[in-house]
Write a structure and sequence with these properties.
By secondary structure, this protein is α+β, with helices and mostly antiparallel strands. The chain has four domains: 38-48 and 333-402, conserved putative lor/sdh protein from methanococcus maripaludis s2 fold; 52-60 and 242-331, Elongation Factor Tu (Ef-tu), domain 3 (Beta Barrel), CATH 2.40.30; 65-97 and 200-238, RNA polymerase II/Efflux pump adaptor protein, barrel-sandwich hybrid domain (OB fold (Dihydrolipoamide Acetyltransferase, E2P)); 105-197. Helix content is 28%, strand content 37%. The protein is built from four helices and 23 strands. The strands form five sheets. Strands 3-12-16-14-13-17 form a six-stranded antiparallel beta barrel. The protein has a four-stranded antiparallel β-sheet with strand order 4-11-9-6, with no helix packed on it. A hairpin with a 2-residue loop joins strand 18 (343-345) and strand 19 (348-355). Helix 2 (106-153) runs antiparallel to helix 3 (158-194). The longest helix has 48 residues, at 106-153. The protein is elongated, with a radius of gyration of 37 Å. The two termini are 74 Å apart.
Length: 405
């Protein structure tokens, strides 16, 4: 008699064997699959973004005066030292004993008389410029008051009021500069007249005393000891250190993006907070400068005016090193990602999103950028997790895991 195995038993055995084979296949596949690639991740955020052009700069006194010898003669010892306060038309800076009048021939005297006439004309012109600046300032004050009233009534935009405010500040500064120019021209006139003085007749043998043309301090003492000096020999530099400006030279390719009126942050001057300023002038002519690497570069000087009241609390002086950051673009709320997360894709940009443990290459449109962050105008939304620093081994669809470091 032949014994047969019941059919249900055979079926169950086949099912068990199939399950065992499937389990072995799954186990082998799971064991042989590559480990997830560890990556650093970042989250696209919404917030402010600022784009600046940065360069090292140097402070300088806005109005600097070099006091020089009005005539050839003996200058007595200069007692003032750098940092000593001086008062306009009062503080004596240097004392001269001119050479005898016999050394002035007719030709020299005529030249000096012509110099006096030119100095007088310069004084007259400076006074006219001062009057014109005062008139423009008065008009700017009326325009600002009118714009303020119209903004309150809703007749004009706030940008109109800001433009009127900027014009008023500019003309007030222009008046200050015009007043200083008048003082300088008057000082030049006095020096020109002093060059015609002779000990025997005009000065009666008395010494010539040069007084400060401006309120401020002594910046540099160019000559200290008593000596015989020629006419025009520099003796002292004086200026008002409370009226500083900053000059920084930018690459010409960056200077074309800078315009007068743009806000500036002045940092690395020694304090914790940056000092605020505005671009006053982008010089129209560039110059060649050799970089530290020996490369010739075309540079352009950018002059920054400092209007921050915090300047009075600092100890900044003339020719101090600072860092200038010109704000060329700024927005209060944009979607942004770290600059290192961007990947070049032909002539476009993309990022690697992290979706369900895999890297997904996503095209994005990039707007403004600075050294650390970039604006994303489309492609991803705020809150999207991206790979912060995609390496060469990262590709679309690769399994990734956040780095534990």
């Amino acid at each position: 008699m032949t014994s047969t195995v019941p059919r249900p038993f055979v079926t169950r055995r086949r099912i068990a064997l199939g399950c065992l084979v499937c389990a072995l296949v799954v186990a082998v596949t799971w064991a042989l699959r590559p480990d997830a690639l560890e990556v650093e991740t970042a989250v696209a955020s919404a917030g402010p973004l600022r784009v600046t052009l940065d360069e090292e700069g140097e402070t300088r006194v806005h109005d600097r005066f070099v006091v020089s010898a009005p005539v050839a003669g003996r200058v007595l010892r200069v007692g003032l030292e750098p940092g000593d306060a001086v008062k306009a038309n009062e503080t004596p800076l240097a004392t001269f004993r001119p050479m005898t009048a016999g050394l002035l021939d007719d030709r020299t005297r005529l030249e000096l008389q012509a110099r006096v006439a030119a100095a007088q004309a310069a004084v007259n012109g400076a006074r006219v410029d001062e009057e014109r600046a005062r008139a423009q300032r008065d008009q700017a004050e009326r325009d600002y008051a009118r714009a303020k009233q119209l903004v309150g009534a809703g007749a004009v935009s706030r940008e109109r009021l800001e433009a009127a405010d900027l014009a008023l500040i500019t003309w007030r500064k222009t008046v200050d500069r015009a007043v200083t120019a008048v003082r300088a021209a008057e000082a030049d006139l006095r020096m020109a007249r002093a060059s015609l003085m002779t000990p025997g007749r005009d000065a009666g043998g008395a010494a010539i005393v040069l007084r400060s043309p401006v309120d401020g301090v002594v910046l540099r003492r160019l000559r200290e000891s008593e000596a015989v000096v020629p006419q025009g020999e520099p003796i002292l530099e004086v200026g008002d250190v409370s009226k500083l400006e900053v000059v920084a030279d930018f690459l010409s390719t960056d200077a074309v993006r800078i315009r007068p009126g743009q806000d500036v942050l002045i940092g690395r001057w020694g304090g914790a907070e940056a000092i605020r300023g505005r671009v006053r002038l982008v010089e129209p002519a560039g110059f060649t400068k050799v970089s530290a690497l020996g490369v010739e570069e075309q540079r352009v000087n950018v002059i920054v005016g400092i209007d921050d009241p915090a300047l009075a609390l600092t100890r900044l002086g003339d020719r101090f090193r600072v860092e200038v950051r010109v704000i060329v673009w700024e927005a209060a709320d944009v979607v942004k990602v770290p600059i290192g997360s961007l990947v070049r894709d032909g002539d476009r940009w993309s990022v690697f999103e992290v979706r369900e443990g895999r890297a997904v290459r996503t095209p994005v449109v990039v707007g403004q950028r600075n050294d650390s962050e970039a604006e994303v105008t489309s492609g991803i939304a705020a809150g999207t997790t991206v790979v912060a620093f995609p390496g060469s081994g990262l590709a679309d669809g690769v399994r990734v895991a956040p780095s534990s470091r």
